[in-house]
Give the backbone structure.
Amino acid sequence: MTLANLTIIGPGALGILFATRIWQVFPHVSLLHYDKEKARRMETSGVMVVEEGNGTVLKAFPKITANAKEIGRQELVMVLVKAFQTSQVLQDLKVLCGPETLVVTLQNGMGAGDILARVVPGENLVLGVTMHGANRRDERTVVHAGSGDTILGMFHPGSSDINRLEGFVRLLEKSGFITYLVQDIYPVLWKKLMVNVGINPLTALSGLRNGEILEHPELVSIQEKAVSEAFTVMKASGMDIGMDFKEVLALVRKVCKDTAENVSSMLQDRIKGNQTEIDFINGAVVRFALEAGTDAPVNETLCLLVKYFTSTGWNFGLH
């Protein structure tokens, strides 16, 4: 597949990171915004990525609009909005997608793919994860805080449609994203889910950076319980990721150390007073538990706490 055009839905940190890098080697990339005025300003000024390590700056001038009709049918669409915003982009996808359009999601947690599948045929839907971290500095600038692999697979595991992604993978590689295709993406999604389960809510509730969790025995204990519960639910759901619980817990703590200075996406949402993706992370564990005929009280409690503080504006003071 040789791409003629692609659109990224979502003007957040990850959307700007991918749009900016891809534009350096592929000018036929558009960014679909949700706000007409912001889109106009960003298209005029361009978008920018600052590399945290060395201060290198990349600038890009993709087409940026809030009107999907101005973009029209695309060969590939990346959905990079927050998971809870997925249902809001379904109408735009109907405008952007033709019968052969590939739709790729790299959203956090699990469940957004099922929402996209309401309007995107399974043979055109690609799920994935990326280990890149990016923090928003202002509406047009992000700081690239960490690199890692990007892994993609079809919504229906084992589908030969995965071969259609080869051109996109080459484009991502040219853009600086190390990318792999796998026949079954779901073990990868579960692995990342368990990492997020053990980090995101704890940082949001405590206000700590990723690495600081490990400095507090109470949080370490909650982390182990939450990840253990998610691992048990995963097994009850019939999924095998080729790792035992000790290996998974070691991975979670390695990520804490490797991203010690990172402010998790959920903590960023708390700081900004935004809705979080808790329903697609710890909430996903609760849903899978119900489907498997069991429960997940630790993850449910974390989910409820985050949702409570989100609804009250994260005000910890007395009234």
Notes: The chain has two domains: 6-184, 187-310. Residues 48 and 59 are 4 Å apart (CA to CA).
